[in-house]
Design brief:
Layout lengths: L2 H11 L3 H17 L4 H9 L1 H28 L8 H16 L1 H5 L5 H16 L2 H13 L2
Helix pairs in contact: 1-2, 2-7, 3-4, 4-5, 5-7
């Protein structure tokens, strides 16, 4: 199934925003397990138009993240005491670090290990106690 179609299914079937984020996390993780960190370097070097589209879409994704986080506040699973713009921007920059993960960590950790750590820290940091409980249960079931 194409990624966009999978995302539509995740949106349609979500229990709450945390559930949606966790399903997107799993989707990205599947992609990363089959992708070399050089993917991004090669995309930038050999496919500049694709890279430009990726770069241009970042702002749209950032705004979508802000909107989702606000929904999550209403659902009681995302903390209301955080600045959603800052959180979305930090998440964007953390994912940008993945592109340079080999240089930063000298290949000490896998691409997926770095991504998992970034995402788990992010989701637990923005979640309410109810959201953390939901997240912990998800990771326990999907260990």
């Amino acid at each position: 199934m194409e990624r966009r179609a999978r995302l539509e299914v995740y949106f349609a079937n979500r229990k709450n925003v945390i559930d949606l984020l966790l399903n997107v996390y799993e989707d990205i993780l599947r992609f990363m397990r089959n992708t070399s960190p050089m993917f991004f370097v090669d995309m930038e070097r050999y496919y500049p138009r694709v890279n430009d589209k990726y770069e241009n879409d970042k702002e749209c994704h950032k705004q979508a993240t802000v909107d989702l986080l606000k929904e999550g506040v209403g659902e009681g699973v995302i903390r209301a005491d955080i600045n959603m713009e800052i959180v979305a921007t930090l998440l964007t920059f953390q994912f940008e670090l993945l592109k340079k993960s080999d240089q930063i960590f000298n290949s000490k950790y896998t691409f997926t290990e770095i991504f998992e750590t970034i995402f788990k820290s992010f989701i637990r940091g923005i979640a309410t106690p109810e959201g953390v409980k939901y997240t912990d249960e998800f990771f326990e079931e999907n260990r």
